[in-house]
Amino acid sequence: MKLWEGRFDKPLDKMADDFNESLSFDKVMWRADIRGSLAHAAMLGNCGILTKEETASVKAGLEGIAEDIERGALVIEGAEDIHSFIETELTRRIGDAGKKLHTARSRNDQVATDFRLVVLEGVARLKGCLVGLVEVLASRARESLDYLMPGFTHLRKAQPIRCAQYFNAYSEMFLRDLDRLDDAEKRMSVMPLGSAALAGTSYPIDREQTRAALGFREISQNALDAVSDRDFAAEYLFCASLVMAHLSRLAEDTILYTSDEFGYWEIPDELSTGSSIMPQKKNPDLPELVRGKTGRVYGDLIALLTVIKGIPLAYNKDLQEDKEPYFDASATAESCVKIYTELLARIKLNVNRMYYAASEGFSTATDVANYLTGHGIPFRDAHAVTGKIVRYCIENHKALTDLTLEEFRAASPAFEEDILTAVTVRASVDARNSVGGASRAAVTEGLASVRRRLRKYLA
Ligand code: ARG
To answer: pTM for this one?
Structure first.
């Protein structure tokens, strides 16, 4: 039976019915739907729109349905969507009072409300996952304050950095993601219920009461907008897309750093996979999947943005296409963050390998140039002199730390004995004491700052 079939002579064609339905994917919203209906019914009762008996009967009926779904005694099937399913089931159980639940309500404001409740829960879950991830990043940073590694630009060794500074960089990204979700939550927490189909309702309802019962921050101020606004879901998808962008960068680093060529990190056996043909291989399937799944989440965002771009006011059935992108993106983003939290917690750092890699490749050449500018030579000239020293090293198969004071002085008389320490990686990182820099003090402060900002989300 359809909720709307009174106007029609013939039942809906089977093919059309299958095409039109959303129950197959919106049944997971049953808890939100029942919550919304309980709040709505209580309000109708308080406002004298339903009698005390009717209200009590609707409440008991809805609670019974929730219990039965929960324990598997009631299978969600045979309706157009979750809203019709629950209303039909309620009427089957309690009779006429069930038919009154939909007074002063439309499926348009009902679905908009349910979906907001569902996405709000998703925001809270994703935030929880991100908090766990930043905690692991912070503890890896704490442990690696004194480990050095090469820093890259253009994937070429650029300057040595502290490992902790590397981990802190990702903490910064995921903290921004947390802030972004936190901010989106404010706009999401606006209740459409009471907007009815599009124009509001003539019943003397009390929207403030349902708002308080459902825990929304505010009630919507325009019924036309409220029933057709899906910005909140688009914002969630954008937030999730950026989370995935950040994870994907981390995945790319992981894949490189765990390769034989880099050898900086090692993925533990229980999180690695093998090859069916090449017995020697240990593959980074998990980070590769995270990198690959980023595309799906971006796709989900674009799908929804495209759905909403052509929606004339107010509700249109296109909006039923809002849910699957969200379900897909939230499941994907949450599982990727969780997998990465495990991976990072267990990844082995090859400290010596990273240290040697940081010392190779003339990564302290900038320090040579800075040394010269410190001795009154303009930076451009210092850059040129250093370039000549690097060329000399390449031709003579030497590292900067192999050079004698005489060899330095052959390039410029400004060099003194202390150049020999200035070109070591440790001196190089510790010279970078600007806020956010690679020195021990700067990185320690960077980590403290990550921890301070994380605290807001730990409560
Ligand atoms: N299943 C619909 C959706 O997900 C519910 C709202 C239906 N409203 C309507 N006027 N047909 O959007």
So the answer is: 0.94
